[in-house]
Amino acid sequence: MKLRAVKGTADRLPADQPRWHHLLDVTSRVLGRAGVQEITPPVFEFAEVFERSVGEAADLVVQKEMYTFDDRGGRRLTLRPEFTAGVLRAYAEHGMHTWPSPVKLWSHGPAFRAENVQRGRYRQFHQVNVEIVGSPAPVADAEAIALFVDVLRALGLRGVRVALGSVGDPEDRARFNAYLRDALEPHAAALTETSRGRLRLNPMRVLDAKDPGDQALVAPLKRPLDFLNPAARGHFDAVAACLDAWGISYAVDPSIVRGLDYYRRTAFEIHAEGIGAQSALGGGGRYDGLVAQLGGPDVPGIGWALGIERVLDALDQAGVARAAAERPQLYLVAMDDEAVVEAAGLARTLRAHARVEHGYTKRAPGKGLRDADRAGAVYAGLLGGRERAAGVVQLKHLASGIERQVPFADLPALLAIEPSPSDPDGFAPTAAATASDAA
């Protein structure tokens, strides 16, 4: 049997790496300038961390989607299905509530859920996660949303749409769930099995149903925004006012809900317009009280996560140019056996200045130049007996075809310059040099 990657996972090949690194580099720069510090939580935690945070009624994540297992010591561990619980466990464990508030943290890496695999949904997927912990102010919610938008804009994505909603306070959520049960239980037989489970455990999530029949049943019903208490309504209006003041456009979406029990008040999603049905790039919301559930102090917080695969897909569909891999500045070709080790040693020395590759066997000049071209090199450098005796490399600028002999000692300075195809920064012989050579 031919071994393959597990369904719902994917290999990230060398050609894919530049775009991933570019996304993370841009994210790090944008968030870093806002004082968001990077944290790296473990990939797995004690299962209780996630069970406490997501709640028993949180959709079917706990029951069906988390990868939970017993280790050799009989401890129940879970591969993280999301970042927030692990980051806040670390916040509580390391006493971050004593730091200047709010504490702003970001992380990235894989997460794991036993999803039904489809475009944009994987069983091992990757996220960027941001948490702002310690402030109940609406401006913290607005800043979180703004940072999400800033990251996407810095990546070159246009047509970003913010959908803004609120799930209210716990008592609002309880009243809304009771309303949904009363409204939908008489029609439960007409709902899909998934929606019937949600109606029993977390009625709010029925609003997320994708089945047309389920959607028809919930369409005429009220939404969470209709159940907000005055304080929650005031908080929502203040978040919207901040976004208005900062010029960040949004649309109020009364139907936004969250499947995890820890969400309070602000909830939002970010979409990319014009890329089809799979437009959601991520979302988040406020989770006051969650740190206390995880054994820490009772502090407020808000956070979000973006799906890296989804964002990269959106960038491709929007026609944003992909980040290119770094080209070798020089590819050294050994033209005799003695030059093989010599070329490798020279490459090692020159790597302090530029990316340099080399052949591993002797090659005829024509084949060596083809090797250099296939490697994408800017220059090819030929080394053989005559070059060795003279202490030079026969250097060819592959785009222009210009070539000349360059002493070993001059190579670092030359490789530090990115040449242009028409005039590789003085690499072309000067008129005086040409006349001297002719004489």
Question: How would you portray this structure in words?
Answer:
By secondary structure, the protein is of the alpha+beta class. It has two domains: 14-168 and 228-317, BirA Bifunctional Protein, domain 2 (2-Layer Sandwich), CATH 3.30.930; 330-438, Rossmann fold (3-Layer(aba) Sandwich). The chain contains 16 helices and 16 strands. A hairpin with a 5-residue loop joins strand 15 and strand 16. Helix 1 (17-33) runs antiparallel to helix 5 and helix 5 (138-154) runs parallel beside helix 9 (230-245). The radius of gyration is 29 Å and the shape is elongated. The termini are far apart. Residues 428-439 have low confidence and may be disordered.
Protein topology:
Elements: H1 17-33, E1 37-38, E2 44-46, H2 47-54, H3 61-65, E3 68-70, E4 76-79, H4 84-93, E5 103-112, E6 124-133, H5 138-154, E7 160-166, H6 170-184, H7 193-201, H8 212-218, H9 230-245, E8 251-252, E9 264-272, E10 280-286, H10 290-293, E11 301-307, H11 308-317, E12 330-334, H12 337-350, E13 356-358, H13 365-374, E14 379-383, H14 385-390, E15 392-397, E16 403-407, H15 411-415, H16 431-438
Parallel strand pairs: 1-5, 7-8, 12-13, 12-14
Antiparallel strand pairs: 2-4, 3-4, 5-6, 6-11, 7-9, 9-10, 10-11, 14-15, 15-16
